[in-house]
Design brief:
Layout: H1 6-15, H2 18-25, H3 34-40, E1 45-51, E2 58-64, E3 70-74, E4 77-81, E5 100-107, E6 112-123, E7 126-137, E8 148-150, E9 159-161, H4 166-174, E10 177-184, E11 187-194, E12 200-204, E13 207-211, H5 220-227, E14 230-236, E15 243-254, E16 260-272, E17 278-280
Antiparallel strand pairs: 1-2, 1-5, 3-4, 4-7, 5-6, 6-7, 8-17, 9-16, 10-11, 10-14, 12-13, 13-16, 14-15, 15-16
Helix pairs in contact: 1-5
Length: 294
């Protein structure tokens, strides 16, 4: 498959960065290089995005394990030991062979991140992804968390709803990081968004929005949303392990001043207390973060 599809090309052309995107796009390959393989084996967290095969709704989920639970097992293959809980919205997708998945391994300790997108197949110990796209991103807007500890936690029963509660809205407003899953005809993607607390606005219990900060000019996420508005968001409490998963549709608004704002309409909310057995140290905010609007 090509590096870019029509959705990404449309956004690149609108913003006037096609040449820059072509240059950056040369970094996207299908192979997992030794440095990438070594990075994967150090990670206790992997975020996966996909569409539920029954409902078509797009979700992002957090998978965790002892470092080594994610590893390269071939020139183009990443294997994951374990999977999601049966109550996770992505449980069916991650047990369905051929599912298009997007993954991102993000290490707050080093402010490095790696994305691998491809097709899933079942294995005896979990699942594997045959890579179509493998690439790294710069550390821009990524908060540093110097250390983590693994703690004994029993995930709570997921709470479900059709809109954000007051407490969930406060959780979103306080976030400095979230993950976004998106899809297109040829696959899926999982990406990261970061900023100072307040960078995500809660405009109503069923609508969020955030400014799209200047990035690498590829516009993979915004390109996916231009072709298919379905999206999934994942917010993590880096201290308590609570996971807040949202699914809905997202559209990009292009301002006359060149500012871009993504507007997300909530269709379903899933909140799981103590979902992630990792307790991270407090953040050191990225110097690249713009101040959130007042």
């Amino acid at each position: 498959m090509g590096v870019y599809h029509r959705g990404s090309r449309a956004v690149q052309d609108r913003v006037g960065v096609r040449a820059a995107a072509d240059h950056v796009g040369r970094s996207i390959g299908q192979g997992i290089k030794p440095v990438a393989a070594a990075f994967l084996e150090l990670q206790p967290l992997l975020v996966v995005g996909a569409a539920d095969p029954a409902t078509g709704r797009v979700w992002a989920s957090a998978l965790t394990g002892t470092p080594g639970f994610v590893r390269a097992t071939g020139p183009r293959q990443m294997s994951v030991t374990g999977g999601t809980r049966p109550t996770d919205p992505l449980a069916a997708a991650l047990t369905t062979p051929g599912t298009s998945v997007g993954t991102i391994a993000l290490d707050p300790r080093t402010r490095r991140r790696m994305r691998l997108n491809g097709r899933l197949r079942r294995t005896a110990r979990g699942f594997a992804v045959e890579a179509d796209q493998v690439f790294s991103n710069c550390p821009k807007y990524l908060q540093r968390r110097h250390s983590y500890e693994t703690v004994e936690r029993t995930p709570g029963q997921p709470g479900r709803g059709g809109e954000l509660s007051a407490a969930q809205a406060a959780f979103v407003r306080a976030a400095d990081t979230f993950f976004v899953a998106s899809v297109h005809d040829g696959g899926a993607d999982a990406s990261h968004r970061g900023g100072n607390p307040g960078f995500v606005r809660v405009d109503s219990p069923r609508e969020l929005s955030w400014r799209d900060y200047a990035g690498n000019a590829m516009f993979l996420t915004l390109g996916n949303l231009a072709a298919d508005p379905r999206a999934g968001l994942l917010f993590l409490d880096w201290a308590t392990g609570t996971a807040l998963q949202l699914t809905g549709e997202a559209r990009t608004e292009f301002g006359a001043d060149g500012e871009r704002r993504v507007r997300f309409t909530v269709e379903e909310v899933v909140e799981t207390p103590s979902a992630v057995p990792l307790r991270w140290s407090p953040p050191e905010f990225s110097p690249a973060n713009p101040d959130p609007p007042g």
